[in-house]
Amino acid sequence: MAGWGEAEQSSHPGSGLLGDASSEHRPLALAALERLSPTELEQVYFGRMCEQDGSDEVVLPSRPQSASVARRLVLSVLQSWGLHQLLEAGELLAGELIANAVRHAAGRTVGLQVQRRAGWLRVEVRDSSRALPCRIVAEPGGEAGYGLQLVDDLADRWGADLLPRGKAVWFELKIRERG
């Protein structure tokens, strides 16, 4: 298994859009990815993300609409895994991390991965910037500055890891099994 964000061969529909593209074909794959509508992106990635191991990263264009695509994908994955108690927090926080990556990183794509581990759900967003996120004080009545505060308030754990080519910002939610 490749590390998060590293290319891995896959038979999933849409896998050839970017993840498997060699460096010479990457600009063509990226152009194809950027032409997809939010609905088409969801259709391409839904089955791929719902697998129980959640090891695949999906690549989304770095555009504001990708936050809503990520929210719907995470919502669908959590529903398919029966994690109904995490629907609202998972959806909201995934959208916040994608929105931050789109707003603050200069790359053309962002990566999204959802993993379920024993007792935990982990959502990770990768981008090409090595600048670590920092919480800012939100202006009263303003729209900006609340994202990482929400992550801090709702996630059980969150953080950021520097990668050779960018960073990964993640959050984890405890899966509380009903006994």
Please explain how this structure is put together.
With 179 residues, this protein is an alpha+beta fold. It has a single domain (15-174), classed as Histidine kinase-like ATPase, C-terminal domain (Heat Shock Protein 90). The chain has helices at residues 26-35, 38-49, 65-80, 87-104, 147-154; strands spanning 58-61, 109-117, 120-127, 157-163, 166-174. Strands 1-2-3-5-4 form a 5-stranded antiparallel sheet. Helix 4 runs antiparallel to helix 5 (147-154). The relative contact order is 0.14.
| Top CATH class | Alpha Beta
N- and C-termini, Cα separation: 33 Å
Shape: globular
The share of residues in helices is 25-40%
Give the low-pLDDT segments: 1-22
Biggest sheet character: 5 strands, antiparallel
> Using DSSP, what is the number of strands?
5
Beta percentage is 15-25%
Encode the helix/strand succession as letters.
Answer: HHEHHEEHEE
- Roughly what is the average pLDDT, rounded to an integer? 81
Structural class: alpha+beta
Q: What is the CATH topology?
A: Heat Shock Protein 90
CATH architectural designation: 2-Layer Sandwich
Count of domains: 1
Question: How many individual helices?
Answer: 5
The value of Rg in angstroms is 16 Å
- Neighbour order of strands in the largest sheet: 1-2-3-5-4
- Tell me the CATH superfamily: Histidine kinase-like ATPase, C-terminal domain
